[in-house]
């Protein structure tokens, strides 16, 4: 990683999504849909959770969760296990559907086809919206029966329609970014956990997402392998304008790279603010209790 | 009664013709079994509830009724309904259907064991459904179950002998015919048994090779 040229990092600003109006065909304009009156310019949030509720049966995982992430911002969700942090990312990635509320990516809903929120967005259309997002998982989720290179070329070929050689070029470029150009022919099972996770990051980046979701990406790693993965993320967040939404238990790392930290408990935001404030002078007793338990003071 | 080498040689061409038919039936009904089983499993996995129930019933009937009963039903029963498929076609389809039912259970178990993380990864990459199935899910299922599937094909190969009952000229049928014509049964059935055994031996080696090939890269 150290010797890769940071200027070759993917242009995260490349538009991955046509932000087509989802439901304004001939319907009367609803100015109320934009209460702050900030739409239309650069202030459109990259990701917007609007009173999102998620229930699994009787269990309420998210309870009116609201969060707005600016383009280019790095936001970290912290909080106890089971507090719903991962669910937030899964909803944004369309891996689950919210029970209520809306999620907008660059101003366009990925949940509903109409502003009133009655008709669900058809899956194919939702998938197209979600192309602005990439996700990296706790357990890497590489395809074990494919080489590293095939893992990276599959989506560019089948989603972007690139030729085999173009996709391979793109894949090798991204493997270089995470310092694993030499491992293109290896199978995931032949790599260390840290290497697998770096491959997974590279794979998520091949589609040039504008928003990257990182779900506890170091939790399954041996302690000595965490650093190399975090280094890749650090480079990404500081040297590109990619928007990053992170769930992590690495508090020091969260403090270092986040523009904003959101403390989460029982499906609700307890506290949010710049990392210096949340970590050094938390207002909420729940934040204090949580930080005390994880930071091992 | 002692072993007659001359007679053994004399019936060899008849038996080898039976071997050819046995292979043909195995290949054809094996193909039906592997592809049909996959189709049943995927349809049962993705299809509407009604389709799932229909397939379930079909699979249970095919698995639960003895093959001979199904063969006789198809061969002697269907003409009553105005259908007259040849004995060969009847045998191939019935065997293929029965083993498609068995194979579908293997595929079904395989699909159930594809981890949610794999589906998540495919979805997060925005892979089209077709690509997810063809490049990610099915290869995973096949890798894990190639041994079980191959095992069913080996059993199917032996079960082709059942087609004797409706007169398809497989190896056993030709052995019976040879014996019947000369009233000597020792040589034909001994040779038939040996041929079944000999021809099955390479399958062990082939299966192991295929298994090693598809599981390359570890899990």
Write the SSE topology:
The complex is a heterodimer of chains A (297) and B (219).
Chain A: E1 47-56, E2 59-69, E3 74-78, H1 85-92, E4 100-105, E5 108-109, H2 123-129, E6 133-136, H3 148-158, H4 164-177, H5 193-205, E7 211-215, H6 223-239, E8 243-247, H7 251-257, E9 260-265, E10 268-273, H8 275-280, H9 285-295
Parallel strand pairs in A: 3-8, 3-9, 6-7, 7-8
Antiparallel strand pairs in A: 1-2, 1-4, 4-5, 9-10
Helix pairs in contact in A: 3-4, 3-5, 4-5, 5-6
Chain B: H1 5-46, H2 49-64, H3 67-77, H4 87-112, H5 116-124, H6 129-159, H7 171-182, H8 186-214
What keywords describe this structure?
heterodimer, A: 297 residues, alpha/beta, 4-stranded antiparallel β-sheet, 10 strands, 20% strand, disordered N terminus, B: 219 residues, mainly alpha, MetI-like fold, 8 helices, flat
Q: Can you summarize this structure?
A:
Chain A is 32% helix and 20% strand.
3D architecture notes:
The complex is a heterodimer of chains A (297) and B (219). Helix content of chain A is 32%, strand content 20%. Mean pLDDT of chain A is 83; it is low at 1-40. Chain A contains 9 helices and 10 strands. In chain A, a hairpin with a 2-residue loop joins β9 and β10. In chain A, the strands form 2 sheets. In chain A, strands 6-7-8-3-9-10 form a 6-stranded mixed beta sheet, with helices on both faces. With 297 residues, chain A is an alpha/beta fold. Chain A has helices spanning 85-92, 123-129, 148-158, 164-177, 193-205, 223-239, 251-257, 275-280, 285-295; strands at residues 47-56, 59-69, 74-78, 100-105, 108-109, 133-136, 211-215, 243-247, 260-265, 268-273. Chain A is globular, with a radius of gyration of 19 Å. By secondary structure, chain B is mostly helical. Chain B has one domain (15-215): MetI-like (MetI-like fold). Chain B is 80% helix and 0% strand. Chain B contains 8 helices and no strands. Chain B is flat, with a radius of gyration of 21 Å. The A-B interface holds A 90, 93-95, 127-128, 130-131, 133-135, 137, 139, 141-147, 154-155, 158-159, 187-190, 203-204, 207 and B 117-118, 120-121, 123-128, 131, 135-136, 139-140, 143, 216-219.
């Amino acid at each position: 990683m150290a010797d890769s040229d940071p200027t070759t990092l993917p242009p995260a600003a490349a538009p991955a999504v046509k932000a087509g109006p989802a439901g304004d065909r001939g319907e009367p304009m609803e100015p109320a849909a934009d209460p702050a009156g900030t739409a239309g310019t650069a202030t459109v949030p990259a990701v917007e959770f609007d009173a999102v509720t998620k229930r699994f049966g009787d269990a309420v995982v998210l309870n009116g969760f609201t969060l707005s992430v600016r383009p280019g911002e790095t936001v970290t969700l912290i909080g106890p296990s089971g507090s719903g942090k991962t669910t937030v990312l899964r909803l944004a990635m369309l891996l689950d559907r919210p029970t209520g509320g809306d999620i907008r990516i660059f101003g366009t809903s990925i949940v509903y086809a109409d502003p009133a929120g009655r008709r669900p967005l058809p899956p194919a259309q939702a998938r197209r919206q979600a192309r602005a997002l990439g996700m990296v998982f706790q357990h890497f989720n590489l395809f074990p029966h494919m080489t590293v290179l095939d893992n990276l070329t599959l989506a560019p070929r089948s989603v972007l329609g690139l030729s085999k050689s173009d996709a391979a070029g793109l894949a090798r470029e991204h493997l270089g970014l995470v310092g694993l150009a030499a491992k293109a022919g290896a199978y995931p099972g032949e790599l260390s956990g840290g290497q697998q996770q770096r491959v997974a990051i590279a794979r998520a980046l091949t589609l040039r997402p504008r928003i990257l979701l990182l779900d506890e990406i170091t939790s399954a790693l041996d302690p000595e392998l965490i650093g190399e993965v975090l280094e890749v993320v650090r480079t990404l967040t500081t040297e590109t304008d990619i928007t990053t939404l992170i769930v992590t238990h690495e508090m020091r790392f969260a403090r270092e790279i986040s523009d904003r930290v959101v403390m989460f408990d029982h499906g609700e935001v307890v506290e949010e603010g710049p990392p210096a404030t949340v970590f050094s002078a938390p207002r909420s007793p729940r934040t204090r209790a949580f930080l005390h338990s994880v930071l091992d003071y | 009664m002692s072993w007659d080498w001359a007679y053994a040689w004399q019936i060899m061409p008849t038996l080898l013709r039976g071997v050819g038919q046995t292979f043909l039936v195995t290949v054809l009904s094996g193909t039906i079994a592997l592809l049909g089983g996959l189709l049943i499993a995927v349809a049962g996995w993705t299809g509407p509830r009604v389709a799932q129930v229909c397939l379930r019933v079909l699979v249970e009937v095919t698995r639960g009724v003895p093959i001979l009963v199904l063969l006789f039903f198809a061969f002697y029963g269907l003409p009553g309904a105005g259908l007259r498929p040849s004995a060969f076609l009847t045998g191939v389809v019935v065997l293929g259907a029965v083993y498609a039912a068995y194979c579908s259970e293997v595929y079904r178990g395989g699909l159930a064991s594809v981890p949610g993380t794999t589906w998540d990864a495919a979805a997060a990459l925005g892979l089209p459904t077709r690509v997810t199935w063809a490049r990610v899910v099915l290869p995973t299922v096949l890798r894990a179950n190639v041994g079980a599937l191959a095992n069913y094909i080996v059993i199917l190969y032996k079960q082709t002998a059942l087609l004797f009952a409706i007169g398809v000229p497989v190896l056993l049928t030709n052995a019976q015919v040879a014996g019947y014509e000369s009233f000597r049964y020792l040589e034909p059935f001994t040779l038939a048994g040996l041929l079944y055994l000999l021809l099955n031996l390479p399958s062990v080696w082939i299966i192991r090779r295929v298994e090693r090939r598809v599981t390359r890269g570890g899990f």
